[in-house]
Design a protein that fits this description.
Helix content is about 45%, strand content about 15%. It is an alpha/beta fold.
Length: about 240
Amino acid sequence: MTQTQNAPRIVFVTGGNRGIGLSIARAFAADGDLVIVSYRSGEAPEGLVGVQMDVTSQESVKEAFTQIEEKYGSVDVLVANAGITRDGLTMRMSDEDFTAVVETNLTGAFRSAQRAISPMMKKRSGRVIFIGSVVGMLGSAGQVNYAATKSGLIGMARALAREYGSRGLTFNVIAPGFVETDMTAELGDTLREKYVAAIPLGRFCTPSEVAAVVKFIASPEASYITGALIPVDGGMGMGH
């Protein structure tokens, strides 16, 4: 499929079948973009195009992008959102729990970006947006693996921004704080109050607020922003 100048952009959201990723996908779709979401099992959310992909497998990533390109055209905007947690104190954390998070959150994001870059270079246009976390800047007890991956995304984005800026590609990191999701909804009142007390704005973020910032970074108005870390955390990290 060959895009025309007025055709909708092709937006690929990894891990876009639930949570923040799904909110981002629906926000792009509401603007008329052609949105594809990846999922490891099950099926795509209603109203969205889905492709099965496992970011821990290079072959799976390559195959998913090939399927998208053959059916719709090359990806214009990649939102690398797929991620997992395997929390635990460092002294009790197994090698498997550490490497599984790195393999999904960091190496998986690299595989997705690497596969997206070549077609973007040919068009001399493309946006890659990594979904990080305030934890990558502040750290979090019991999340040494997760924090390391989210911090690593910042270095990855900045290295890529320097490599491919001359080709018209941008790479940025969006770092949400605590977001209203099914997972945070299960927090006890005491723990929730503790987290809210650390946020200057005094509340959790909504998924739609994260999605709005992602959409802006993918918009023409953000064409001169690259290598940036954009916090959406209510002031929790104060930009660190």
